[in-house]
Design a protein that fits this description.
This protein is mainly α. 48% of the residues lie in helices and 2% in strands. The strands form two sheets. A two-stranded antiparallel sheet has the order 1-2. It has a two-stranded antiparallel ribbon with strand order 3-4.
Amino acid sequence: MGASRWSNALPVLEVPVEMMHSRTSMVRAVLSAADRLRRRHVRFRLRTEGFSGCAISFLVHLLLLLALAYFNLWTDQEPGGIAILVPVPRYEPPVAILPGDIAAMEPPPGPLDERLGSFEPAPVAPTVPEIMLAAMPSRSQPVADGDLPPRRFQSKDLLMATGSQVRGGGLEGRDPDSRATLVQTRGGTPASEDAVARGLAWLAAHQRPDGSWRFDHRGGACGTACGNPGTVASTTAATGLALLPFLGAGETRPDSQYREVVERGLYYLTGRMIIGRHGGDLQEGTMYAQGIAAIALCEAYAMMQDESLRVPAQKAVDFIANAQHDQGGWRYYPGQPGDTTVFGWQIMALKSARLAGLHVPEPVLVRARHFLDSVQEQEGAHYGYMTPGLQPTPTAVGLLSRMYDGWRQDDPRLAAGVDYLRKLGPSRTDMYFNYYAHQVMHHHENPGWDAWNRELRDRLIATQVRRGHEHGSWYFNDQHAESGGRLYTTAMCIMILEVYYRYMPLYGRAAIAADDF
């Protein structure tokens, strides 16, 4: 009600009859009290000094105004209750997730388990664990048979769950007994493992109380202590991406330092899933999130053998299969013609599903080959984004996909593509390109691997932040980091430094020949 309406009402003693008929009992009581006060003034002619008829008139008017105000504030509400109106927050426009251009608007928060504890707003610097690489090849103390839950298969059996022509790429290198050996023999160093440990500590410190992570980390316990927040709204993409480095480091054993961090993140992802006739939807607006979250669920199921993860992991893969375009690709939305970067995350999710023994329809893999054929040049040595071309990141994604599809190590097309990446060298800022290209170079075991690895590995070690609340994180100015922020950059850098054991070699002595994708 405007100020003019109130001012016009002040000199008026009479109340319109139609308004009186709609008064609540409380308003009538107030008016009755005011009338009694007026009659008492007339009847007894109060003679209190200084308390004039004008003051009594003012009091009567005030009571009337309060009654009218109460009436106008509440007559529009349903009787018997109080309605509280909360302004709806305005969402920011969709922004690019990683290299794409569509992202979900942030949905309501997911379910909160009482086990997750309370929110502590005060920034707490990441606690970096002591790094003891000398103890990594084997546990210093034997584990009693009753200390670990029974497992239905050994880690080496993960190699047998896939049907690719090269049965490498398994997850068994993440076991502590294998990890140290692979670090020493495949190009890692104590310094690179120290950087991984510090990066994991930063990620753990930025997990939300509900188990999630956000690309815009400012709303958590960190507050504004860390710079370079991301703008992408998808919580499933951020949570899946943050989980992958913990899974890559094998942090799923009952005695692992970050076992609870992993469980909380998985709990959040499964709670965010929308199950429908097409499978389990984890997009929150983008198929990038679907692929990334599906990889996390599939790897966690393969490593932990927690049966509660089987259905969510399978449902996430089912959604990917049903979202594929009829020409074999994936893009931002289900059914769109594909692009190479979104394609790469979905292929890795399907690979992880097979490693976990989940069902992946063969026609999906056949169509995926068709998509790669449609964007290749030089018979598959180079790849474009949505059409044939020669672009660095699409080429790295395409070559890695071909490796998992069964191309032999001595295939001249693969050798030509690897040589192209070798000549480019690692990017100083683009961790998205480095993530895929580093895997290609590592798996191919080209003579250029040692120089490539040394350059990228040592640069990441040298550029990791070692001060304040940002300790253990990375950030580089490039197009992907602008949307993904420090969380995206840190997760990608950790996974690059985990390449020595995150997936077993595709063509080394651990690889075994087979039939199809």
